[in-house]
Amino acid sequence: MTLNIAEYWLCTDAIDPVSWKSNYRVAMREFLTALSVSTIAPIARPEDNKKRKVIKINLHSVMYETFHPLRAKRMASAMHAGVIFPPILVEEKVFQHLRYYVVLDGNHRAAAAAYLCETKIKAQVVSSTDLTGIDFTLDNKNILLVESKHADYKYTGLKIETEVMNIVYNTFKNFKDYSIIKEAVEHGTQA
Question: For the chain, what is the domain count?
Fold first, then answer.
């Protein structure tokens, strides 16, 4: 694959552990994982680990983390040379009908594929959690709270304090508000 210089820099940013994109992936992963503690989030798991299918997922939806950039570069070189690595293991998080994948095993494989400007990666989905419709808010100390069955809200322990985390929180808050407005419009009620 031949890349122009702009595409090259876009892809090399994939393994930079302190880039804005990296910080955004970390913030997204933490936010989605925190929302998953809600007791009203339905979780689906394949019954038998051997029956998990290997599927190709959109790499842009994978919330990987690069711990060792040099390791990811070495893996990218090996991938480019034709070495085939096992699929990554992910948890699927569905929020407002968008699918995100939190990596359980294979962070560097995902980073290496992104470094090579791949758009898809082979993965096995360990579980799927539907977070659509779960209400969330912040307390007076910016700690994220999520809707729960047994109490009005449950503390997640996630503090929204960085600029990137604020952007993620506000983006999702706007998605939630948008869904409420859209549902009201579709049913002809006032929002």
Answer: 1
pLDDT number for residue 19:
74
Do residues 127 and 45 touch, judged by C-beta distance below 8 A?
Answer: yes
pLDDT at position 67 is 83
Name the maximum alpha-carbon separation found in the chain. 59
Reading the block at residue 157, the tokens are 């322990």
Provide the domain limits for residue 57: 5-187
3-state secondary structure 39-72: CCCCEECCCCHHHCCEEEEEHHHEECCCCCHHHH
> What residues contact 132, with CB distance under 8 A and at least 6 apart?
94, 95, 96, 97, 179
Say which CATH number the domain at 72 has. Answer: 3.90.1530.10
Q: Residue 8 pLDDT more than 60?
A: no
Whole-model pTM: value is 0.79
Using DSSP, state whether 107 is helix, strand or coil. Answer: helix
pLDDT tens string 175-186:
765 554 444 444
